[in-house]
Amino acid sequence: MAYTKSKHVPGRAKHRINKAGESTILSKHFDQLREINEDNQPYQNIPWDVNKSFEAVDLYEIAVMALFVLPQVVYVYPILFILLLPPVGLNLLYISWVVPEKCDVIPRNTKFRCLCIVQAVLCFPALVVASSSLAVSRFAMLFFGIVYCMWEEGAWQRYQHNLKIIEPYCHGPLVLSYFSDCVAGVAAMVHRRGLLEFTSSFSLSEFIHSYGKQCFCPADDHVLFNTPVFIINPWIKYWITGNIYLTNLSERFVTQIGSAETMTMDQMCRRVRNYISRAKSLDATRRYISSAFFCPHFQYPPPRENRFFAVGLEHSTIAAFVHATHFQAAPDCIERSISLSYPTCISPTAEVPIYRVVLWFNNPYHIYTGVVEANISKGKQPEHPMWLISSHNRLAADPRIMLSTGWIDTFFEGFLPHMSHYIRSVQHQM
Questions:
Q1: How far apart are CA 5 and CA 12, in angstroms?
Q2: pLDDT the model gives residue 124
Q3: Mind telling me which residue stretches traverse the membrane in this protein (predicted)?
């Protein structure tokens, strides 16, 4: 994709975060994406060339990753799993006993503030272990990235090019700077998935055989490879899909379109938000949501905080933290939608924008870099456009390689039918 040169934004101003959780330079980048995609009618995937065979760079990435990931799995995983059980279990008890049924936003009251204080103490050992693991991984990527560049002509120019590609997605809000969001998000997700399933995939990466074939996954369709998320996510993000040292990066566009619905736009929007953003649902709805192979939770921003975004969670093949911007206020915060001006979506075909998820480069606990939207199109169809930073080597972009930027397109094509079924099922709205 070709971009026009953006206007120079001096110093720290270009990385200043607005109420939508987006920097000035990222907002300008969204304007460029909006201009490019206005000419893309009908809204179609842009072709992406992928190397058909494994090359030296793929083998090098695999070798280095195995050298550092496998030892961390053996030694770090048991520690993380044990350390994460108490705080995750406490979150489950809190949302089960304290939070009322059909609760859109977990109240940020005195009880919740006390919970956050206790969680900060309980989570500190796990944070130390995870941070140490991340530091070792990033140093290894830097060292072996420089080693590879020393033997290849034009590596410095490629590195400079890649820095320009990822620049809009750098310097985003830190996940831990919104610790209360993390506590509330984990509470909602563990209530949906259960203590052991969530904790194992919170510290493990759960691979699903039938991710593109069916939306409901019985227990015998799950295979646990015991790969810690706090270990594997940074390696997939910085070493495989978005390696700034070894491969040429650019921005890849793909989109998924669901089937048209007969209900009103407001009904569709409300049901999608109930599915994804409601903190605590009734048991029947919770079981239905949990039965899917992909479970996103983009919680509403706290009502008393003047922002449109919150830290959310995704749970499936991996667990991941995200920054989700809401185009509409929570159901019990109608006055905010009137008094505040919400951001504009990127997609030119969106009739009702719902979410924009920014996958910041400085968020090591999501495997991609880019931006994703979830909207209702003008044809009353759920749409899911994605702009992802990727290279063209097979390991990073081949649809047959799990967790690549090509694979994720098929992944969401399998999830949209499940979402459409929920939208049509009135009994799950109770």
A1: 19
A2: 96
A3: 75-100, 112-129
The Cβ of residue 401 has, within 10 Å, a number of other Cβ atoms equal to 18
- Pairwise pLDDT comparison (375 vs 73), residue with the higher score: 375
The first and second tokens of residue 84, run together, are 């994460």
Neighbours of 396 (CB within 10 A): 29
What DSSP assignment string belongs to 375-389? EEETTS-EEEEEEEE
Angle at 47 between CA 41 and CA 52, to 5 degrees: 165
How confident is the model over 210-217, as a mean pLDDT?
33
CB burial string 98-136: b at 16+ within 10 A, e below:
ebeeebbbbeeeeebeebeeebeebbebbeebbeebbee
Query: Which ranges in 103-238 belong to alpha helices (H)?
Result: 110-150, 155-166, 179-193, 195-203, 229-235
Q: Can you give the pLDDT at residue 118?
A: 98
Domain-located, residue 1: no
pLDDT value, residue 97? 95
Cis peptide before 78 (omega within 30 of 0): no
Q: Would you place residue 210 in the very low, low, confident or very high pLDDT band (cuts 50, 70, 90)? A: very low
Q: What is the span of the domain harbouring residue 139?
A: 20-429
The verdict on residue 306 lying in a domain is yes
**Domain assignment of residue 5, yes or no:** no
- Residues contacting 334, CB < 8 A, separation 6+: none
Residue 305 banded pLDDT, cuts 50, 70, 90: confident
For residues 312 and 321, is the Cβ–Cβ distance under 8 A?
yes
Residue 298, domain member (yes or no):
yes
Rg (CA), the chain: 21
Q: Which tens digit of pLDDT belongs to each residue from 120-134?
A: 999 999 999 999 999
Angstrom distance (rounded) from CA 310 to CA 158: 34
Q: β-strand 370-377 against 382-390: which pairing, if any?
A: antiparallel
The model's pLDDT over 169-203, given as tens digits with 9 standing for 90+, comes to 999 999 999 999 999 999 999 998 877 777 766 55
Cβ neighbours around 398 below 10 Å, total: 20
Task: Give exposure, 236-245, as e/b (b: 16+ Cβ within 10 Å).
Answer: bbbbbbbbbb
**For the chain, how many structural domains are there in total?**
1
Structure tokens at 199: 């904790």
